Amino acid sequence: MWAARHNFGWDVFVMSDNSFKSKARRHQKSTGTSYMRARRELDRRGDTGEAGDVPALADAAQMLSVLGLGEASVLDIAALWAARDLPVGTDERVNLGPLLRVPLGLGADGVPVWLDLKESADEGAGPHVLQVGKTGSGKSTVLRSMLAGLCAQHSPDLLQLVLVEAKSGEFEDFAGYPHTAAMLGPAAVMGPDDCGVALIELREERARALAAAGVAHIRHYRELRASAEGADLPSLPTVMVVVDEFPELQRSVAGCADVLDTLLRTGRSLGIHVVAVGQRGAGGSLINSRIVLRTLTAEDSHQVLGNADAHELPTGVGMYSPEPGAQAERFRGFLVPNDLIRDLGRRFAAAAAGPE
Question: What positions belong to coiled-coil segments (predicted)?
Answer without folding.
Answer: none
